[in-house]
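Figure 2 data, in text form.
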Amino acid sequence: MPAKNETDRELDVEQQYLTTLYAEADTLREQASARLAAADPATAPFWRAELRRLEAAEDGLCFGRLDMQDGSRVHVGRLGLFRDDEPLLLDWRAPAARPFYTATMADDHGVRRRRRITTRGRVVLALDDELLAAEAGSEVLVGEVLVGEGALMAALTAQRTGRMRDVVTTLQAEQDRIVRDDHPGVLVVQGGPGTGKTAVALHRLAYLLYTRPHLRGRGVLVVGPSRVFLTYIGQVLPGLGEHAVVTSTVAELHPGVRIGRTDPPGTAVAKGRAEMAGRIAAAVRARVRPPAEPVEIAFEQETLALDPDTCREAVEAVAGTGLPHNPARLVFQQRIVASLAQDLLDRMENVVFTDTGEALDGGSADGRLSAADLHALAAAGVVVDPGQDDGPRRLLDETDAARLRAALLADAGVGAALDGLWPPLTAPEVVADLLGIPGDVWSPADVPLLDEAAAVLGDLGGVTFGHVVVDEAQELSEMAWRMLLRRCPTRSMTVVGDLAQTGDPAGATSWAGLRPPVSSLPGATDSSGTDDGLRSHVDGRWRLAQLTVNYRTPAEIMAATVPLFAAHHPGLRPPRSVRRAGEHPWRRRTTLAELPGVLAGIAAAHRDGRLAIITPAAHHARITAAVPVRTPPELTDPVVVLTPGQAKGLEFDAVIVVDPAGILAGPLGHNDLYVAMTRATRHLGIVHPGPPPAVLADVRERSH
């Protein structure tokens, strides 16, 4: 062990350097604040963002150091700091900082020593050194050394806080490769429980915003499975210095929809299929009805006749523009009104009235002014030299024609007649009519249909994003994917999920199903080969990568899931756990009547970190009445009660899974049970009314 004075000396060295870094950051913060106060509206957003970036780095400003074999030394942190063009601190996203995450004994990247620096506020607490150069093996390490992945293990075994923490200080090489992947299209990341796929996706977003700053101007979107989940991850990006990010659930992407019911599984599956897009488009097209017979339209003192051929030609011409239904309707109206106005103008030209308002002449067949025309015009005060009558002439000019067209468009009778041919439509009207349901309360599966209808009608807002992160992406139906891709026309996306955790019946069974909508982008290519949804590859605009190491879930808990996983996912491999907790999962048998009391007792006795009770929805009300928890759940509380769907993507120190047989009874209950069992970082218990399901029979039973 190194001498204490040597440890203290190294701590003092790092403390002095950290103090220097904070002094530099404070100076920059003061400058940014002053410039923001004096900024004009054009530059204020820049200085406001700069101030937020500097404030976000207050905690954990510097967390690492690289001693290179050439004698140079660099510190790594949350942002870059420079003095006279010399780097005081490397941003973790900079290329020169990458060896901090990727250097190993086998491939040291020129690194002699990697030091991890643990701080609290502005104080250095501990150091963790690794010697990577082969010839350095005999040197004495100074500082508080945790051999190998000690710093990572310390982070993983720490108690949960109810909020996700960034992993910028402990990213592993497998994760770092994905974070820095520069693929311009859709990067799909398959990762089992505890592999850090959510953290990887968010860190990749921070990396892309660093390397592609133009994305900030276009906006970035993070889509999660629930608002509870989005709150859980809400501190990660600000902690990495990124604030300008929109977060949303899939349902929230189409605002104004009142969710009030849940579809049966079969209905949800049918609504989620891509073929629904064709049905919606066909339903909209069917509402355009060119007449088979002439249509008479009353306008002022006239009766106008709309010819079927004219109407049909207008429909075909407007359809050829590719405009959505409602904007196309306006073009159709303008074409029809122009035709009606021209007919009316021609009629008016061919009848000349006296000053008493009586028709004097039917007009000349060749359009020339007859003697009667000239006489009538003279009576009206218009004198025309007969010698200048060298051909057809119009009495009404384009100004008169424009006024007539405007009058026709404003006429209620004309508008009603045109709406009968090409009606204005709303998305709720189209979807409700197609599904045969009332258009006031919707299910989650209806939201992508409403969005599709709005896109067909041209009523969808123009909000698009430069990059989109999709978490728990296995839950999305084909129609939900269409909804997302409309908001990211460049197809720049980071998509993470686990096929073994799909809980939505309309969700994914293979990542290959994502290929068609992505490859539909102009210029994208598609592969003619087959894919099992797991091989890493590049296919047109999308690439599939994998995370294989489970950092969260102890090996003892993952072992308890083996029968369940093997029975339902023989083609998948579960992630490999890197640690053991020293405690095996347990199960306890009870009755339905005793269930709330048993859980209340467990919750009252729990003292070791945060506890999640994960239950089927059928028991939720009874359990929350017996266990003092908040609804909706607040993840920073010591105890929460969740359904498997609500628990997706979350982690807790301890988990109690309630009624596994009830969970298994769901449409994809085996995946829901797998989710529930893999949320714990240390302790897992199972409370089951009646006998346990066969896949859990080997879990140790205890009586209390």
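Caption note: The two ends are 44 Å apart (CA to CA).
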